[in-house]
Amino acid sequence: MIVRENNDGKTVLIPQHAHAAISGEIARHWRKDDPNSPVQRPDTIMAVDQHDRAWIPLDEVPKRKPDGKGFYSFIDYPLTDKLRAYQQGIMEVREQSRYAAILCSRHYCSFFSNDTDDEQIKAFLEREHGLQQADMQTLTSTEKATLDTDQKMLSFCDDVSLYLCMNQPGVSKQNEVSWFRDGFREQFSFAEKIIGEWVSPEEVRLTPSPLESPVRVAIPQVIVDGDEFREEKLWITVS
Questions:
Q1: Contact 173/163 with Cβ under 8 angstroms?
Q2: Pure H helices in the chain
Q3: For the chain, is the Cβ count within 10 Å smaller at the N or the C terminus?
């Protein structure tokens, strides 16, 4: 889950797979004048769209913290359960596309340092690196040439969706989540840096825009008020 507080002090929960679907919409509407546009690479779009399917079973029932104060987010979720879910999610993508599976696997592996002393993380990285190498043998030379570009694309679209989901709609620049306040880390042929900005509670502007045209996306949310859970949908235009 993505977990944040709204202006009323209530907890907002956003499922990870729903957030990933928004990432997919960003990729589908990428500007066509970019030579690295993923629009004509369906396996790339699939990877972006499905990269967080690992969280589907974990998010079915939001996990409360032991002290009862709040819910675990994707950031602090218990590592053992998270790594097991990552592996399952990657394998489900692999059943559809080995190219997409490599991208998803690389994406999850990028969360961890290769110098870690954690035995669980070491085992996860070793397993995933082995699967990546095996799957690489099935790729065409063209696919191998686009892997690094498409991994960057996945990372950027993921970050844009997180920007939409983690911030309070309409937040001022100085009060944004610190991760993205100074712009996104990825560089493209048309921009050394892309900056996000909330111009209203219903609209986010990306400058310069990576999009062919404005995209209207729906963010499914669960509002938690005590023991009550209320579902609602927030619509945001990204331009």
A1: no
A2: 16-28, 42-50, 56-59, 79-94, 98-109, 119-136, 141-166
A3: C
